[in-house]
């Protein structure tokens, strides 16, 4: 035990030595792939919600209704449902490289098409150009959202998978954060400037994806899981997922969480303006929501990479999210609660958004050997379907009321009463959390499979006896690694 590096969690130091014994190898260009995918995901998210923080201003400028502006966000949920299955097939059949390049070009084309709505060409039907551009970006979203889990699985070693998945997954909410901060500031300088600004990162991501990505998988796999990645055929994999009870429960509950958070992000400005909160404050709340989510995801990604406590982390995160969601439903209906709302939105992101990459990893673990694209993608498709239903339900339950003097909504119509809708959102979040806590149980099948392929570990490995998760998983897989002298030294 004297050889244990201070601060390293179980498995963090042993994993590189095991990978070396098995003949696996990692490549530095995996970080380039992750960077391109992260930039693309961030750009796509900014395009998704660039209108939501300034919904009333956009509606007034283009002479559109609030419902039409909501559809510019809702179209992402609608399009992703039929296109999601196709995206899973593309990802698992053609590989990460071609899926990412296709995604980048769709995203760039959509961003350019949106800008035409504010030109002479688009003056007659601005909504048509806006919706067409959003639809192309929505097609791109399904490809980029499904990719982090597969990228982490086929390019990164076992002890870096959760961290890589966290970076790729959290790039999407980072884009939402950028949209919440930039849109209120840019719209003051002009709609054309706002639309044109969002084209720049989309174009850069398109250029990098086309030029810098050379292959879908590395020449030598980084882990046993990568060596057997996508070992099931597409249709066979989908059948296995549908029959997997633990996966179905996770997909329904986590998909519901995705739907609630998508609706929250898209409707936040409209909920707050009714009670006198400005667009800038709504953007700040959205930014805090995402920023704390990214911070929490960073901590949780490093934590589960070392402990492998996927299930416990997701369950605790969901329960805490439900409590905060109830608090938001109550406080958002009150005036003059800026500090409380800012704190609640921060906690909602910290507890809720941060578990997203861990839940994606858990989906892969409980469904192995089904391909990572299918495992993560089906969860997202279901989440988008649930998000569409939740958003339609929340908006349908609102009623118009006589505009009070303190309302800051500027769409030219009476503001909406969101009280019942917000209570329903909190109730749904609580139901999904309870179902997950009580009914979700699963072994970690990918880790068990990797432990089952371990070669004999020779005695003399520093702290080999201390890496409990590896020994436990090996025992569950029916293996008992022998320990002999002369093993490689631990990586620092």
Automatic annotation (TrEMBL):
Superkingdom of the source species: Eukaryota
CC terms in the record's Gene Ontology section? membrane
Instruction: Give the keywords, sorted.
Output: Membrane, Transmembrane, Transmembrane helix
Q: One matching Pfam family, short form?
A: MFS_1
Predominant subcellular localization, coarse grouping: membrane
UniProt entry tagged with the keyword Transmembrane helix: yes
Q: Where in the cell is it found?
A: Membrane
Membrane-spanning intervals of the chain: 31-51, 71-91, 128-146, 167-187, 193-214, 247-269, 281-304, 316-334, 340-364, 376-398, 418-440
Question: Under the GO molecular function aspect, what terms does this record hold?
Answer: transmembrane transporter activity
Annotated PROSITE patterns? MFS (PS50850)
Specify whether Nucleus is a keyword of the entry: no
Q: Which InterPro entries match?
A: FLVCR1-2_SLC49-like (IPR049680), MFS (IPR011701), MFS_dom (IPR020846), MFS_trans_sf (IPR036259)
- The UniProt record lists the Major facilitator superfamily (MFS) profile domain at 30-445
Lipid bilayer topology: Multi-pass membrane protein
Q: PANTHER family from the entry?
A: MAJOR FACILITATOR SUPERFAMILY PROTEIN-RELATED, SOLUTE CARRIER FAMILY 49 MEMBER A3
What protein name is recorded for this chain?
Major facilitator superfamily domain-containing protein 7 isoform X3
**Gene name, Swiss-Prot/TrEMBL:** MFSD7
């Amino acid at each position: 035990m004297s050889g244990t590096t201070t601060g390293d969690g179980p498995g963090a130091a042993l994993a590189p030595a095991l990978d070396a014994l098995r003949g696996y190898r990692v490549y530095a260009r995996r970080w380039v792939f992750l960077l391109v995918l992260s930039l693309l995901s961030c750009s796509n998210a900014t395009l998704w919600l660039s209108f939501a923080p300034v919904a009333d201003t956009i509606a007034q400028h283009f002479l559109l209704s609030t419902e039409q502006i909501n559809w510019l966000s809702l179209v992402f949920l609608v399009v992703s449902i039929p296109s999601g299955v196709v995206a899973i097939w593309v990802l698992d059949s053609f590989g990460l490289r071609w899926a990412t390049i296709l995604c980048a070009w769709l995203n760039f084309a959509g961003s350019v098409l949106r800008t035409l709505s504010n030109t002479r060409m688009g003056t007659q039907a601005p909504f048509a150009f806006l919706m067409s551009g959003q639809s192309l970006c929505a097609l791109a979203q399904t490809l980029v959202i499904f990719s982090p889990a597969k990228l982490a699985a086929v390019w990164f070693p076992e002890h870096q998978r959760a961290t890589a998945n966290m970076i790729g997954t959290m790039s999407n909410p980072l884009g939402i954060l950028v949209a919440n901060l930039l849109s209120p500031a840019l719209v003051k300088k002009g709609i054309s400037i706002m639309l044109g600004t969002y084209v720049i990162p989309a174009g850069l991501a398109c250029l990098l994806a086309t030029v810098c990505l050379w292959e879908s998988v590395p020449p030598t796999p980084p882990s046993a899981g990568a060596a057997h990645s996508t070992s099931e055929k597409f249709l066979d994999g989908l059948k296995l997922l549908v029959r997997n009870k633990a996966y179905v429960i996770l997909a329904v509950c986590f998909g519901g969480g995705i739907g609630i958070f998508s609706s929250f992000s898209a409707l936040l400005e409209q909920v707050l303006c009714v009670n006198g909160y400005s667009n800038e404050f709504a953007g700040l709340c959205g930014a805090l929501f995402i920023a704390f989510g990214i911070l929490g995801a960073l901590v949780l990604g490093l934590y589960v990479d070392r402990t492998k406590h996927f299930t416990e982390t997701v369950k605790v995160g969901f329960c805490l999210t439900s409590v905060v969601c109830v608090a938001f439903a109550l406080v958002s209906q009150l005036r003059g609660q800026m500090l409380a709302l800012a704190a609640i939105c921060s906690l909602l992101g910290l507890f809720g958004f941060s578990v997203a990459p861990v839940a994606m990893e858990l989906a892969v673990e409980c469904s192995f050997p089904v391909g990572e694209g299918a495992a993560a993608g089906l969860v997202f498709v279901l989440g988008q379907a649930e998000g569409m239903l939740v958003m339609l339900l929340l908006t349908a339950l609102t009623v118009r009321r006589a505009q009070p003097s303190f309302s800051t909504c500027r769409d030219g119509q009476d503001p909406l009463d969101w009280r019942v809708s917000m209570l329903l959102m909190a109730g749904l979040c609580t139901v999904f959390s309870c179902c997950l806590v009580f009914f979700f149980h699963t072994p970690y099948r990918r880790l068990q499979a990797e432990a089952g392929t371990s070669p004999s570990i020779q005695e003399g490995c520093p702290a080999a006896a201390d890496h409990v998760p590896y020994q436990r998983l090996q025992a569950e897989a029916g293996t008992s690694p022998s320990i002999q002298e002369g093993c490689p030294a631990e990586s620092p």
